[in-house]
Every structure is written in C-alpha cells, then in structure tokens.
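Q: what does this look like with iron/sulfur cluster bound?
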Amino acid sequence: MLQQTQVATVIDYFNRFIRRFPDIPSLAAADPDRVLKAWEGLGYYSRARHLQKAARELVASGTPRVPDDPERFAQLPGVGDYINAAVQSIAFGHALAVADGNVKRVLSRLLMKADPVNRPAAHKIFRCLADRLLDCRDPGTWNQAMMELGALICRPRAPRCDQCPVSRDCGAFQQGQVGKFPARAAVGAVPRRQMVAGVVIRKGKMLIVRRPAEGMLGGLWEFPAGPVKTGRDTEAACREALLRTVGLTVTIAAHLGRVRHAYTHFTLDLDACLCRPLAGRVRLNGPEAFAWVRFDELSKYPLHKAVHKLLPKVRALPVFRLPPVLPF
Ligand code: SF4
C-alpha cells in the first residue's frame, strides 16, 4: 500500500484491510471484488490484484507465510526491488537497501548526485548508492530511518536542515546548494483524454460492467464507456461505445454532465449520457462481466474514482428515489 502512496493516506486503508483479511489464507480465499472494494480509492489497483495473486501462490505452495528469502519472495506477483528490500530487510533483516523517492532525494542532496531522480535510468544509480551506505548490522532500521529522514526532514520543499542529523555530512547543505538537488528531468504536459460513459437504465436498475482484470483499473466496475475522438460528437460516441462494448442500441435521453479526474499519466474528461435501450441483449466485448443494479446496490461494487465523481449526477435522476444520505 505504501508504494507510491503516503503513510497518512494508507493507515485507514491498512487497518480496514487487515480486519477484513487478517492472514494470507483469508486473502487468498476472498472474492476479488471484495479485495478491490477494500482498496477502492487508494489507486494503483494492480497492487491489490498482485497481493491476492501472491497470497494464492503461497497457499497453493503449502506454506502460506511470507518467505524469509529475498530470491523466493521476488518471484511473487507484484514484488519488485522496493517491496523486496523493504519487506525482507524490515521483517527478516536481509541486507537490501530501499531506494524509494524519499531515499533518492536524501542521497541526491547528501552526495550531490545530479542524476535526475525521475528518470528510470537513474534508479539503478541511486539503488547502488543506497546499497553502499546500508548498515548491514541492522538494515531494517537503517532503511526505515532513511525513508523517515526523507519524509519528515529532507522534504521535497522546505527541508528542515537545521534539525537534520546528517547536516554535517550533507554536501548540498554544506555548499549552500540544497535547492539544486534533486535534479529532475523536464516532463511534457500531461495529455488529456476524453471518454463518454453510458448510464443505461432499465426497470430502475443501471447497467455496470467490470473492466478486464489486467491493465489500468483492472477488475473495477464502471458504466460502459468508450473514447471520444477529437471533434466527434459525444452522444454519437456514446451510442457507438455501447453498441461495441455491450451490444446495446440506445438513444440518448440526456447529457448528465462531465467530470475530470487526474491520473498519473493523463487527465480524463469523462462525460456521462443517460441512455434508453432500444434493442439488443447485453453481449460483452471488452468488459469481463456485467450487472444490473439499483443505485443503493452500487456500494457493493469496487468503482473507480471517475465513476464516483459521476454518481451525484446519476443519483439526481428522478428514477432513483433515494434517501438523502448515501452508503458511500
Ligand atoms: Fe536533506 Fe538538509 Fe539534511 Fe542535507 S542537511 S540531508 S538537504 S535535510
């Protein structure tokens, strides 16, 4: 959970998750929808899918415990350098250095390394530096100290050099060049993508679909949707998307509005249209499952953030006579 996500955000999720899935067998046996529901809002959903796959592999192997063995642990789904070093050093004392964003920033300032920390090529350089500094007598405590130093003292903006325990050894501080480190490579403007979602209502229930398990937002539920090419009419794109992804011919009854959501690599503008089904039966092309649900049943399904942003517009539809407080 802590990969790419701040501790303050994670704490509640972690406590809820551990209550629901207190050990590896219970996580392995859970319905994947329940696992994603517990992760809903935390983002980077592949982490949840990998966690459950790893739990299932461990149960299938007959030893449902986290392996005290970096090589074996690294074979599990979703375990890369960072997870391997963090778990194996903190839980079992293996001498592997963590090089996350906080540690890279500390190292860059401490050693005045000008390699841009946001370039994948620089990761190996910082990992080697972290390995060289690692205190092999207590690597778990060392790694936690380095991460905490970056998170609390050597902050991205306004580092607290006056409280820093390593300021005497810090090259950037000693030379009055803290503001120059870490270097970052210029990144281009974040692209925009436009999509349209169709809210198809039949007998008081809405059609939702589950995204394919692999890929972005994999396994999460949403209204059937498709891209809107530049210059194309949103309503026509919505009709096409519904025909293509769920096999339904629809008319557009109303445009419900637009929401915007920022992902790491792009910003999504998502329009929603209220649709009346004219013909066809649901035939999936892309999504892995579908369900017709009442509005109050939506809370059982893991939905992604952009869909959550649409819900107030959907809830306002006269067809849903809802109580004023939603169960989200
Ligand atoms: Fe970071 Fe300042 Fe400490 Fe150097 S002295 S490691 S720049 S907080």
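The CA atoms of residues 204 and 319 lie 6 Å apart. DSSP finds twelve helices and seven strands in the chain.
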